[in-house]
């Protein structure tokens, strides 16, 4: 269900269950979490690209599995751990959404650092129609990504957003024909700088603590790249 491979400077993680629109069962969530744990040194890349196989990104939780749950809270926590693994990955995670993203699929995308959609992408949180809601960290991350009013409208209504609406609300940052190209573009940056930027922007500590850490990270990068900076002044 979860496939990983390296391709140049990008590590590719694929949700690979296209016959079910990449819907996720409990073992798949475990495998996804493991896919974002620190890989072996020869597989490490500055950027990880998350995608879905076939004509969908991810339909979310497999409803057959949800109906059979003995411990729904444990399942929700398992999904939260999978999403946290994406968010906490040491590499920059670019999520390419091509086709539908529903429920848990939206929540996995929310955990990525950069979300990019193709024109055929659509997004929806249909759980409300079943008396449920996204519990893989979606209620935490959604209002960080979208304005609170947009987040409430999206989650409460269960309506589907097309790619352009997702762009307007901030759910995605770009609409492009080839999301993988965005991963390659970001991977062209210097790897230590990419990691430092991610750590600083993702920092949830108080502002003063974050600003001290930001200044320290800037100084470290400045010292490490003094020669390149000096050459850049002359260009």
UniProtKB/TrEMBL annotation:
The record's InterPro entries line, in alphabetical order, gives:
ClpP/crotonase-like_dom_sf (IPR029045), Enoyl-CoA_hydra/iso (IPR001753)
Q: Where are the transmembrane segments?
A: none
Q: Which CDD domains match?
A: crotonase-like
Task: Report the coiled-coil segments.
Answer: none
Q: Which family does it belong to?
A: Belongs to the enoyl-CoA hydratase/isomerase family.
Question: Record's PANTHER family?
Answer: ENOYL-COA HYDRATASE, IP11341P-RELATED
Could you identify this protein by its name? Enoyl-CoA hydratase/carnithine racemase
Q: Whose protein is this, by species?
A: Halorubrum trapanicum
């Amino acid at each position: 269900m979860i496939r990983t491979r390296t391709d140049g400077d990008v590590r590719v993680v694929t949700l690979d269950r296209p016959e079910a629109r990449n819907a996720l069962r409990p073992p798949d969530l475990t495998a996804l979490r493991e896919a974002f744990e620190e890989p072996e040194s020869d597989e490490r890349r500055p950027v990880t690209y998350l995608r879905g196989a076939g004509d969908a990104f991810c339909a979310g939780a497999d409803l057959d599995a949800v109906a059979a749950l003995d411990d729904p809270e444990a399942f929700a926590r398992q999904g939260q751990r999978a999403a946290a693994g994406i968010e906490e990955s040491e590499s920059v995670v670019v999520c390419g959404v091509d086709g539908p993203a529903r429920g848990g699929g939206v929540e996995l995308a929310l955990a990525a650092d950069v979300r990019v959609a193709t024109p055929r992408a659509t997004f929806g949180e249909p759980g409300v129609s079943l008396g449920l809601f996204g519990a893989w960290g979606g209620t935490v991350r959604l209002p960080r990504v979208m304005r609170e009013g947009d987040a409430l409208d999206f989650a409460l209504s269960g309506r589907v957003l097309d790619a352009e609406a997702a762009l307007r609300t901030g759910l995605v940052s770009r609409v492009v024909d080839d999301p993988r190209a965005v991963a390659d573009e970001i991977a062209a940056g210097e790897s230590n700088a990419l990691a430092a930027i991610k750590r600083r922007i993702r920092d949830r500590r108080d502002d003063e603590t974050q600003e001290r850490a930001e200044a320290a990270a800037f100084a470290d990068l400045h010292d490490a790249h003094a020669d390149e900076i000096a050459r850049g002044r002359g260009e």
